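Subject: design request, 256 residues
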């Protein structure tokens, strides 16, 4: 099936009779192994499309991109590799990771805000544990559960690591998880595909403007948790003392 310019989300361009079995997912060409899907994401410092040749040479079975025709692949490689075209590769990567790993704790609470995310996630995990629920938290302190603590590099892990961690926790019998949702993680769609049952907001003050550019963009990133990730009927916990309370309350009501 051919995916030309303006191809609909997820349209696949694959070699004839190709039905590759995906063995893993990554956005880091150095981690590609035979059978992997490589997400060629455009970053702030590097463009993943520049590494598709390396990924294909390592045996990548599929490549995710927003512009299939711009990929630096020779005709031979194009005959071997399936290409998934999507206008929003970061979000598609998160959704694919959610489907690939397939399992999440039954109840997931996500917390966002400039300050207090780590404390709220920690307290939430401890409350659940005190009530007899196997629980974990993921964030600045890494992945913490009754099994111990594993350090992490990011407040909100990249989507592949996040969904892998959620599946691992589920396999350990963890039923409840509290996840820190950073503005970077929300803006970069890292939490998409996470089955958020409850979302909490702590506060908003000037921070990360080197990345977001202005407070409006920073605020919009935080609001994604309630606008795009918390399903209708989900539980929203808001700080009534925050200047953002009225706007977030209205947003939550508008989203159901």
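Subject: RE: design request

Done. Sequence follows.
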């Amino acid at each position: 099936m051919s995916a030309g310019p303006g191809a609909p989300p997820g349209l696949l361009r694959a070699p004839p009779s190709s039905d590759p079995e995906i063995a893993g997912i990554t956005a880091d060409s150095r981690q590609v192994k035979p059978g992997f899907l490589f997400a060629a994401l455009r970053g702030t410092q590097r463009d993943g499309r520049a590494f598709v040749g390396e990924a294909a040479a390592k045996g990548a079975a599929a490549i995710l991109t927003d512009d299939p025709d711009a990929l630096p692949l020779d005709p031979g490689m194009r005959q071997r590799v399936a290409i998934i075209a999507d206008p929003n590769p970061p979000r598609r990567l998160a959704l694919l990771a959610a489907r690939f790993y397939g399992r999440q704790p039954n109840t997931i609470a996500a917390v966002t805000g400039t300050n207090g995310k780590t404390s709220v996630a920690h307290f939430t995990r401890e409350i659940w544990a005190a009530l007899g629920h196997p629980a974990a938290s993921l964030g600045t302190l890494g992945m913490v559960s009754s099994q111990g603590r594993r350090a992490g590099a990011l407040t909100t892990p990249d989507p592949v690591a996040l969904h892998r961690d959620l599946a691992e926790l589920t396999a350990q019998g963890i039923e409840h998880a509290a996840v820190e949702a950073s503005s970077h993680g929300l803006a970069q769609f890292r939490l998409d595909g996470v089955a958020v049952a409850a979302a909490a907001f702590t506060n908003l003050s000037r921070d990360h403007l080197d990345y977001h550019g202005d407070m409006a963009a920073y605020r919009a990133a935080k609001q994604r948790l309630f606008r795009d990730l918390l399903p209708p009927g989900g539980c929203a916990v808001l700080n009534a003392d925050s200047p953002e309370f009225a706007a977030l309350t209205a947003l939550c009501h508008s989203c159901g």
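The first helix runs from residue 52 to 57.
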